[in-house]
Write a structure and sequence with these properties.
CATH class of the largest domain: Alpha Beta
CATH superfamily of the largest domain: Nucleoside Triphosphate Pyrophosphohydrolase
Number of helices: 2
CATH architecture of the largest domain: Alpha-Beta Complex
Helix content: 10-25%
Order of helices and strands: EEEEEEEEHEEEHEE
Number of domains: 2
Length: about 190
C-alpha cells in the first residue's frame, strides 16, 4: 500500500519496519529513503505584568475564539527560547524580558512537546496581530477558565498561580504529561 511520495526521489513510499529499526516507517520503494516522523515542539510564553498575565484570543483554528498563551510551532534553526519570544511577538506584539523555562509538557497522544517560558511583559504592551482577535491582561480572579483553548494552557496558568500564591520562590521547571484533549477534564501526570 502506497503511503505518499518520497521527498528525495519522488517515487511512492510504503509503510514497513526498516532493517535495524523497530517501528513502522514510510520508506521509499525506489531509493529506500526512510521518512521519519517525530514529535513537534510547541514553544510559548507566560508573560506577566503587574500581577496579571497576558492571554490572546485565537483568530485561527483549532479553537478559534478561545483564549490561550502566545505559543506556536518551533521553526528550524531557532532555539526554544527564540521560538517562544518570536511567537509572543507574532501573536501579541509582545516582548518578554527575563524569559526562563517554566514547564515542559508531553502530549504523546498528538505527538507534541510544549516548552513554556515565563517572563515579564515589557512595558505592559501587547496588541492583537493576524492570528489573534484580541489580547488582554488578566488577574487570577478574571481568567476565563471555561474559555481556555488547550489543557496545557489551563495547567500552565494553574501552576503559575499556585506558585504566585505561596511564599516560596520556586524556580524549578514543571514537567508533566497531558493526555486530555481540549474541552475534556484535565488528565495530567505531574513529575517531581
Amino acid at each position: 500500500m502506497s503511503t505518499g511520495f518520497c521527498v528525495q526521489c519522488g517515487q511512492s513510499c510504503t509503510s514497513r519496519v526498516p532493517e535495524g529499526d523497530n517501528r513502522l516507517r514510510r520508506v521509499c520503494s525506489q531509493c529506500e529513503h526512510i521518512h521519519y516522523e517525530n514529535p513537534t515542539n510547541v514553544v510559548g510564553c507566560l508573560l506577566e505584568w503587574q500581577n496579571k498575565v497576558l492571554l490572546c484570543k485565537r483568530a485561527i483554528e483549532p479553537r478559534l475564539g478561545y483564549w490561550t498563551l502566545p505559543a506556536g510551532f518551533m521553526e528550524n534553526k531557532e532555539t526554544t527560547l527564540e521560538g517562544a519570544a518570536r511567537e509572543a511577538l507574532e501573536e501579541a506584539s509582545a516582548v518578554g524580558d527575563d524569559l526562563r523555562l517554566f514547564g515542559i509538557y508531553n502530549l504523546p497522544h498528538i505527538s507534541q512537546v510544549y516548552l513554556m517560558y515565563q517572563g515579564t511583559l515589557r512595558d505592559g504592551f501587547a496588541k492583537a496581530n493576524e492570528e489573534t482577535l484580541e489580547v488582554a491582561l488578566f488577574a487570577e480572579a478574571d481568567i476565563p477558565w471555561e474559555e481556555l483553548a488547550f489543557p496545557v494552557v489551563v495547567d500552565t496558568l494553574q501552576r503559575y498561580f499556585e506558585r504566585a500564591n505561596t511564599d516560596t520562590d520556586r524556580q524549578d521547571v514543571i514537567v508533566a504529561d497531558i493526555s486530555s484533549r481540549p474541552g475534556e477534564a484535565l488528565n495530567i501526570v505531574r513529575h517531581p
